[in-house]
Design brief:
This protein has helices spanning 6-17, 45-57, 63-75, 81-86, 89-95, 102-119, 123-126, 131-139, 146-156, 166-175, 183-191, 198-214. By secondary structure, the chain is mainly alpha-helical. The protein folds into two domains: 6-22 and 162-236, Orthogonal Bundle (Endonuclease Iii, domain 2), CATH 1.10.1670; 45-156, Hypothetical protein, domain 2 (Endonuclease III, domain 1, Orthogonal Bundle), CATH 1.10.340. Helix 1 crosses helix 12 (198-214), helix 2 (45-57) packs across helix 3 and helix 2 runs antiparallel to helix 9 (146-156). The relative contact order is 0.15.
Length: 237
């Protein structure tokens, strides 16, 4: 059974759960990332860098672990691309240890930032390049897969690219949007049915994560779910 279309699911989730404020970044004078519901301005250079770091560090770990790593980097003064590239490898590993796979991720951070530095004087300049070529360039960087690349494009670059994650696939399959489709098929399905909007893409991605956190878990909690009526799985439970 195919449930509600993506546009209706988005509208209901936004009404019930409210703006999520993704991607969280550290405010001036702060020590940890914070969510900013209703703020959709293009990130500053520093914010874009923090989003890039978070997108890489969050691979295979919980966001709370990433927050601790970002706080450690900030406390150590590693808040620019240059300072991270200059940092001793072992010191960088210690600073991001909470994010897990810290040796691999320290190497990936340096590889990514060196790659970006060779292409443009700032991250914002690089992330403003033609979208198709830029996405291909991002995917050429070691350790950057589709979800990481699209998170960087959407949140750090403010580009209209929908991010698909494991929650999107789980929820989409339960609603009835997809069956066995992978990343690219799910992304095409959603962008064809949603307005091409950075704001919509950011909020929908964040709302999907919230829905997965509170209701559409590995073992779903359908009672009280805001889209139960429009979900193929929920309507049968």
């Amino acid at each position: 059974m195919r449930g509600w279309p993506p546009g209706r699911v988005y509208a209901v989730l936004l009404s019930r759960l409210g703006p999520q404020g993704w991607w969280p970044v550290t405010p001036r004078g702060g020590s940890r990332p914070v969510y900013r519901p209703g703020r959709y301005a293009r990130p500053t250079e520093g914010e874009a860098l923090e989003i890039v770091l978070g997108a890489i560090l969050t691979q295979n770990t919980a966001w709370t672990n990433v927050e601790r790593a970002l706080a450690s980097l900030r406390a150590a003064g590693a808040t620019t691309s240059a300072s991270i590239l200059r940092a001793d490898r072992r010191r960088l590993e210690r600073l991001i240890r909470s994010s897990g796979y810290f040796r691999q991720k320290a190497a990936r951070l340096k590889i990514f930032l060196e790659h970006a530095r060779r292409r443009a004087p700032t991250l914002r300049r690089w992330l403003s390049r033609p979208l198709d070529a830029l996405r291909k360039d991002l995917l050429s960087v070691n350790g950057v897969g589709p979800e990481t690349a699209d998170s960087i494009l959407l949140y750090a670059g403010g580009r209209p690219v929908f991010v698909v994650d494991a929650y999107t696939l789980r929820i989409g399959r339960r609603i009835g949007w997809f069956s066995g489709e992978g990343y690219d098929d799910a992304q095409r399905y959603l962008v064809r049915r949603l307005p091409r909007s950075v704001t919509v893409y950011q909020e929908f991605h964040a709302l999907v994560v919230a829905l997965a956190k509170y209701f559409c878990r590995t073992e779903p909690v359908c009672v009280g779910c805001p889209i139960r009526e429009g979900c193929g799985h929920g309507s049968r439970s």
